[in-house]
What does this fold into?
Amino acid sequence: MLEHISVDLGLDDLSLLDLRDIDPPPALGANLMMIIGTARSEKHLHVSADRFCRWLRTTHKLSPYADGLLGRGELRLKLKRKNRRARMLNSVGASDTSNTDDGIRTGWVCVNIGTIEDGRIADHTDVDLRDDDFVGFSEDSSGVRVVVQMLTEEKRDELDLETFWGQALGRFTRRRDRIAKAGEYTTSLSDISQASPHNVDVPPTVSHPT
It folds into this structure.
């Protein structure tokens, strides 16, 4: 998949974020793997996302959902209208200097591939981080959910997803370690309190002369 995104689609600066450890998991789903790539232009962004979804459907029989994607016909129509407007302005010696949204410059397409079975990371800790009154997105999943974030260079610099998710993973790791240490300390105290008095050395009684 990474080779297809890099070589065939031409996305640059790929990053792979392993977020399978986070609990409670992100809103995108549990056992999450995230791929981030940079498109060369707005047109390249939408064309690449469209081709990627078609490749997933035909080659791997998956059903991806692309949030922010303009379809081939929609993108072509919007570009045609934009070029027509530019020609009209040029014909009267004017130029379009407005910053209004033309419906094309999304800068970001999120392709949710879905859950790939038999790819879940092995559970290396038995620490339960959820409280009894926990409300969130946690769920029992036997697969890995893969999401591909495609962005233009400007939008990628603006959002800085690597830093955002890196900090979130760091916070979870520190919290998990604190809870694990607290559990070990509690277990140690429990073991001491349950020790048999017959196993405790009691100093002999010394009789004093009257």
